[in-house]
């Protein structure tokens, strides 16, 4: 889990986001892991899925996210290999 939400001027707001790291996973294994991870955490969004720089891995995650009618955005704009999965706004 990753610590999120610290601000020196606004005080500290901390919550932990569950994370799934797909590094060194095969595509078929990733499909199962992502589906299971999302289904198990659907009531605990947002979550983070780390795809790394693989375009194919990112597509697998985005296809599953869309199937669940969720949104996926880069966790940060300087690291596009981590996606924050959340409900559509």
SSE topology:
Layout: E1 2-7, E2 11-17, E3 19-21, H1 27-40, E4 47-50, H2 55-67, E5 70-76, E6 79-87
Parallel strand pairs: 3-4
Antiparallel strand pairs: 1-2, 4-6, 5-6
The count of strands amounts to 6
Task: Please list the strands of the largest sheet in the order they lie side by side.
Answer: 3-4-6-5
Structural class by helix and strand composition? alpha+beta
Biggest beta sheet summary: 4 strands, mixed
Mean pLDDT across the residues is 88
The structural domain count equals 1
Terminal CA distance reads 24 Å
Write the CATH architecture name: 2-Layer Sandwich
- CATH topology value: Ribosomal Protein S8, Chain: A, domain 1
SSE succession: EEEHEHEE
Structural summary, described in words:
With 89 residues, the chain is α+β, with helices and mostly antiparallel strands. Helix content is 30%, strand content 40%. The strands form two sheets. It has a four-stranded mixed sheet with strand order 3-4-6-5. The protein has a two-stranded antiparallel ribbon with strand order 1-2. The two termini are 24 Å apart. The mean pLDDT is 88.
In short:
With about 90 residues, the chain is of the alpha+beta class. The chain has 2 helices and 6 strands; from the N terminus they run E-E-E-H-E-H-E-E.
Task: Give the tags.
89 residues; alpha+beta; Ribosomal Protein S8, Chain: A, domain 1; 2 helices
């Amino acid at each position: 889990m990753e610590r999120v939400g610290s601000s020196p001027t606004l005080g500290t707001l901390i919550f932990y986001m569950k994370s799934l790291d797909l590094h060194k996973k095969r595509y078929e294994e990733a499909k199962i892991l992502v589906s299971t991870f999302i289904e198990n955490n659907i009531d605990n969004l947002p979550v983070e899925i780390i795809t790394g720089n693989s375009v194919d891995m990112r597509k697998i995650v985005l296809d599953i996210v869309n199937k669940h009618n969720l949104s996926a955005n880069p966790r940060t704009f300087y690291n596009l290999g981590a996606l924050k999965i959340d409900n559509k706004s």
